[in-house]
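Appendix B, example 12.
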Amino acid sequence: MTHIPLPVRGEVPMTPDPENTSQWSETTPSAIESEASSASLTVTLQLLGRTCVLALAGDLVGSTVSALEAQVEQLAYLPARDVVLDLVNLVTLDEVGLNVLVGLSHYARGRGGHMTTMGASEDLVRRLVGTPLGADPT
């Protein structure tokens, strides 16, 4: 696991001095930026009667949640009550993405419907256990 040092609130991140490489570890700000910018998410919305299918492909992480949030905003204008999350092509899910999915579950219940998932990998299923998206094993 690589530790990425974050600046303290209000502190301006240091710019690397190319002459002094001893001040940088394996992770440089440009590497962090390129890692974060390589994440991508495609969200496809399909309405089937009163059910909305949201197919997620790629990485649902902090830098990509806006793609899902934009589609979720569309739900307010659709007659769908139930939401099906197609997770077959979801590659990465971080805590921010998981929180957005949990929020979507609450939103569906608030509209009198429910949300289900399909196609989640074993690893993803383990992450969903204990949330409104996954069954609790107890």
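Residues 49 and 80 are 7 Å apart (CA to CA). The longest helix spans residues 95-110.
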